[in-house]
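## Example record

The block below lists the input lines for one assembly entry, exactly as stored, with component labels intact.
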Amino acid sequence: MSLFQVKDLAVHFGGIKAVDGVSFEVEKGSIFTIIGPNGAGKTTIFNLVSRINDPTAGSIHFEGRDITRVAANQVASLGIARTFQNIELFDNANVMQNILVGCHVHVGTSLLSEILRLPSFTQREIESRKNVEKIIDFLGLDAYRDSTVGSLPYGLRKMVELGRALAVSPKLLLLDEPSSGLNVEETDNIGSWIRDIRDVLGVTILMVEHDMRLVSAVSDRVLALNYGKLLAIGTAAQVQRDPAVISAYLGN
Amino acid sequence: MYFPKRTSYRDDLRLFPDRFTLWQYLALFAGLLLLPLAADGYILSQATFVFIYGIVAVGMMLLVGYTGQISLGHAAFFAVGAYTAAVLQSRGMAFLPAFVAAGALSGVVGIIIGLPALRVKGVYLAMATLSFAFIVEEVIVRWSSVTRGNRGMTVNDPVIFGLKLSGPVHMYYLSCVVFWLVMLVVINVLRSRTGRALSALRDSDVAAESMGINLAKFKTTAFAISAVATGLAGALYAHKLSYISPEQFGIMVSVEFLMMIIIGGLGSLHGAVFGAMFFIVLPQIIVGIKNYLPTRIAELPVLESVSFGVLVILFVLFEPRGLNGYWVRLKTYVSLFPFYRRGMFKRNKIASSDLIKH
Amino acid sequence: MNEFLQQLVSGIAVGCVYALVALGFVLIYKATDIVNFAHGEVMMVGAFLGLTFIEILKLPYWIGLLLAIACMTVFGMLLNRFLLRPLAGQGILAVIVVTLGLSILLRAFASVIWGPETFALQTPFYNRVVRVGEVVLSQEHVAIIVLTIVLVAALYAFFRYSRIGIAMQATSENQLAAYYVGIPVQKVHSLIWALGAATAGVAGIMLAPIAFVQVNMGYVGLKAFPAAVLGGFGSIPGAIVGGVIIGVVESMAVLYLPEGINNVAAYILLLLVLMVRPQGLFGIQSKRRV
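Predicted structure tokens for the full assembly:
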């Protein structure tokens, strides 16, 4: 039984079928990548999975549960975390505080315990900070822990966003175009991070990506999307050779 | 030069990060405690108002500065607190329960006024809170069976455990204590999971939701705490002035509250206090300069509002960090001496994102 | 029946005033993204200018009106140049606070220049009535409605058929694209502010016989907000419809609801709209893309 399934997922915005009858499964411990030209509907699928938008039809299943209509703020507690295409960080806070927000969903403190600084509060705060330390170590962000995120360079911001998502201790990690804005060297770098996250942390990864080198390097399975429809699904090599995919990217 | 050292998680969580800060605040508390020995009734009175408006400012800073919810309706909470205290006292209730009730009722009103925040934000929220302020003001005027409408209500001095608090010294201590308690509560909320959630939903509500933060719950919490604080301040205000009437809680009061925290410096509690101090001190400064102005201008009754309006516009356009910006620069200068560089706080386009986006 | 119709017409008339203020307000918002919390005070300035020309300088009504409009266009352009242009790019809170500060300043200057008292502004329609069958209506109210219709029609034609009008629409839709096609965007902004101030000025002068000219007139103009929200922020026909609806609701509230509700009817309506249908009657709801 796969960790994550999408069945006949569709969303219509007015007359536009942004996602049109897409189905796929993601096995636990694998890296699954969605590719496709701009506007194909890739990020829209992410927005449906993280429940920012409601699908018009179809279903989403995670760990056997139907999460199609779950509220957006419940997705994290189910074990799904994501990064955003345009980096949605908390620019006025520092790196440490940004990643701490990732712990929000697992370590809860009541308002009363916060106001009175009860021992339960202190204990849980320290627990959260220990989790964040592990992530800062893992991602090598120690030198920047107190830096305000808004003033960090782009590559570091991506890492912080990744760290924040990891702080959720997700079972499924949604990465939206991890290589965008990165040069070749940085892209290879992030490729190793992604593999490490799967191998060391045991997190399943669902990724949207443009860079075919990165896709081939890390993906276990690939799905090609165009105009909201599934074009091909298989290994990276299989999908790249598929004639429908080639014509979608290069034209007839 | 001075570098604070943190070697444990508990160090991170401390209220006073180092000995130096602790001693500074102890000195401040000692000074405030002993002020009545050195100052006359008038100065103590002004200080009391600084505490009262300081409580409002701290409450507003939590909601507007840290949670990014614009409120043009805080006069409503101020009024609810003031009138609750006045009405309950006139019905024979003792001060402390009435005081608590004032805060609690304001909190409830705060939750109600916060409902639009769950649907809209930015300028729409500003208008929604403004609308509530108009409605509350009208209710106070019309519900004259309880509030005595436009005739206003007299409020007697508070009595705590048999001790009657009359005169500027007593009110000074009372409002000082309440101020620091509110400050402590707000600081503790802000440097905890709730505080992080509030700032998160200000900076990116989409990301905050994806991290599991329930936006409705936290927006409501922010409105509630802010309203409770402002309501308590309103109750103190009622006892301080001994007389309240609806016209003291009009729209302009809400606007002045907002301007107070903008001038103080959005996004810092120090800024809230500076804003309150500025609000009380400005009229004094104007009275002082009047001697140096040509008589025609000096006699104008609008001098105060004009100055306030002009200053707030100047601050927004040229010094968005507010008074707190000056304070931070001064502290940095002193702590980094002699290595302070003049360009240190030049606005970096990327990092200077306005705290409240569209 | 007579009373009901009189109230209705009076409500529509006041609603037309709200509509004109809301119209200028939405125009400015659409083009420059600035929510002008001082637009009520801009209306007040227009009323005082009308007062100056018509009552103080004793010019004929229509000449005074035209002169006031001319002054308001200049006033609008000055506001844009010195106060609002520096605000470009700053967040919504900056805009709200600066325009609120402006409203304070305008009230203060008005009370210094003209005085804090209440002034009367005589119009040619003062104390005259119009008979429509059995019904007796105030000429004042009818004049306001007719004038508004004429003004709105003129503006519609202007936007639809004149080059400047089309340029204004383009700038409101997409400022960057307007730059690219060679539209002088800064000049267009200036003109839009001139237009917004002028319509507010007309509204103020029309309101004068009903509400009298005084420094706190701006609070009446504040009702432009509920009007704009009801109509759908960013929709000009919406602003007009919204204004009229609010005017009617207020006057009906005087007739049928407990005392005092008419003062806050507009704001209750605004809250209802925001809770139930935030995009108003004609607005479009847009979501940010992530």
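The mean pLDDT of chain C is 87. Chain C touches chain B at residues 35, 83, 86-87, 90-98, 100-102, 104-105, 107-109, 111-112, 219, 225-226, 229, 233, 258-261, 263-264, 267-268, 270-271, 274-275, 278, 288, 290 (CB under 8 Å).
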